[in-house]
């Protein structure tokens, strides 16, 4: 898929390709992944008084050759998830398998080999590149550790090839980051990510800091490279609109949990989790006739602290469908048995239903929204336009 406008529709060929990809073998399998940051008190004798539950039991898989978009508001644990997958932060619990091999507790040579295969492109091309290093040194730095990829004598040529691959002039090899624009700097970050010929690239909000006009160019470059080098991408964003163009599947995170995951069609056209529906309602719809059916859901209340998340369903303090059950029972991420067709994808909601279909089939038919102010209720406040 290429970026050709916010209202682009997949062609049948693209849709068939997306389905083909969806059947790919898992390259990364993540099970019950947990990352808690301890909260301590005291200076000399540090005492743990709690924990920030940044990632709290997340399971999903990334399939060979696909792009999995990961979306959620700031602070929901996306970057922490990426860092744990990269082994930049140790996991508190759970399992990460790369091609079937457990990697979350590796060290030494095993860790080094995996690090080569899973690379990251960071959000901010202004701060993620060392201003005192030349572009050639930045891109070629990974070769210092993985000398087997490019022996010393071949490095200049290898870096120039990488510059060429990302659409930069190979003669810029001796320039410094400040001599490039934001989009060019992100191309340098991507070239560095490609240097070790990884199989998986985790892109953590790679275009969020760029101008809208430049975002599409960088996304198109990532898509082109994916085909060329058979890459699997995890593409993190805080906004559902950016991810749509590049993703084969999308996972939605809220407060350290994955709340819904499915193919791009399942998520964008048949979302069943209230949080996803609220995020989608905020995505601008260019077609005025479609605008009428997509009234905006305004979420009230703040995102709770991940150090003290709500009991039961973590979204319940902002959910207009919340019931007593949501207070006491954690909803599991699974395909709800009462849904069928494209709605029957994984959703962590006791009352999962497509928008407009509430009360028509979910267990007990408890689709009646709670009035704002009742326990656990926020408010669905449709705004026209
Ligand atoms: N090193 C850390 N120590 C303590 N808390 C952290 C640390 N890194 C992240 N957090 C907290 O974990 C939560 C998730 O953060 P993050 O993964 O950066 O979210 P996102 O990338 O979705 O914005 C936030 O509440 C953040 O403050
Ligand atoms: S209906 Fe209940 S389980 Fe579903 S999202 Fe709302 S609070 Fe969570
Ligand atoms: Mg982040």
TrEMBL record:
Annotated PROSITE patterns: ABC_TRANSPORTER_1, ABC_TRANSPORTER_2
Xref: InterPro entries: AAA+_ATPase, ABC_transp_ATP-bind, ABC_transporter-like_ATP-bd, ABC_transporter-like_CS, Oligopep_ABC_C, P-loop_NTPase
GO molecular function ontology, one term from the record: ATP binding
Residue ranges of coiled coil: none
Family statement: Belongs to the ABC transporter superfamily.
Pfam families per the UniProt record, alphabetical: ABC_tran, oligo_HPY
NCBIfam families: oligo_HPY, PRK11308.1
Keywords: ATP-binding, Nucleotide-binding, Transport
SUPFAM superfamilies cross-referenced by the UniProt entry: P-loop containing nucleoside triphosphate hydrolases
Superkingdom assignment: Bacteria
Residue ranges annotated for the ABC transporter domain, each copy included: 28-280
Ranges for region Disordered: 353-385
Biased composition (Gly residues): 358-367
Lyase found in the keyword field: no
Name assigned to this protein: ABC transporter ATP-binding protein
């Amino acid at each position: 898929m290429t970026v050709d406008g916010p209202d682009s529709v997949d062609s049948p060929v693209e849709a068939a390709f997306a389905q083909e990809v969806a059947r790919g073998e898992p390259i990364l399998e993540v099970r019950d992944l947990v990352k808690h940051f301890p909260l301590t008190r005291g200076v000399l004798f540090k005492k743990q008084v709690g924990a920030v539950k940044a990632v709290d039991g997340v399971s999903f898989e990334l399939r060979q050759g696909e792009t999995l978009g990961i979306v959620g508001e700031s602070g929901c644990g996306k970057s922490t998830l990426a860092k744990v997958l990269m082994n930049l932060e140790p996991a508190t619990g759970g399992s990460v398998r790369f091609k079937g091999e457990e990697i979350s507790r590796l060290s030494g040579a095993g860790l080094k080999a995996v690090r080569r295969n899973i690379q990251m492109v960071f959000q901010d091309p202004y701060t993620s590149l060392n201003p005192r290093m030349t572009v050639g040194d930045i891109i070629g730095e990974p070769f210092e550790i993985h000398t087997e990829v490019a022996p010393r004598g071949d490095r200049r040529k290898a870096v120039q090839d990488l510059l060429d691959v990302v659409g930069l002039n190979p003669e810029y090899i001796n320039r410094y980051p400040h001599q490039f624009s934001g989009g060019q700097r992100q191309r340098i970050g991507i070239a560095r990510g490609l240097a070790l010929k990884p199989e998986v690239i985790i892109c953590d909000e790679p275009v969020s800091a760029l101008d809208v006009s430049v975002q599409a160019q960088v996304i198109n470059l990532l898509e082109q490279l994916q085909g060329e080098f058979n890459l699997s991408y995890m593409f993190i964003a805080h906004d559902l609109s950016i991810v749509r163009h590049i993703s084969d599947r999308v996972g939605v995170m809220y407060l350290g949990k994955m709340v819904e995951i499915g193919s791009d069609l399942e998520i964008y056209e048949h979302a069943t989790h209230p949080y996803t529906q609220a995020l989608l309602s905020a995505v601008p719809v260019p077609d005025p006739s479609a605008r009428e059916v997509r009234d905006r859901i305004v979420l009230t209340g703040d995102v709770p602290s991940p150090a003290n998340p709500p009991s039961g369903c973590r979204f319940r303090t902002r959910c207009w469908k919340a019931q007593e059950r949501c207070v006491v029972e954690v909803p599991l991420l699974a395909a709800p048995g009462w849904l069928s067709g494209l709605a029957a994808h994984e959703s962590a909601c006791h009352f999962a239903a497509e928008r407009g279909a509430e009360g028509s089939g979910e267990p007990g038919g408890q689709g009646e929204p709670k009035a704002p102010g009742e326990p656990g209720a926020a408010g669905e406040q449709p705004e026209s336009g």
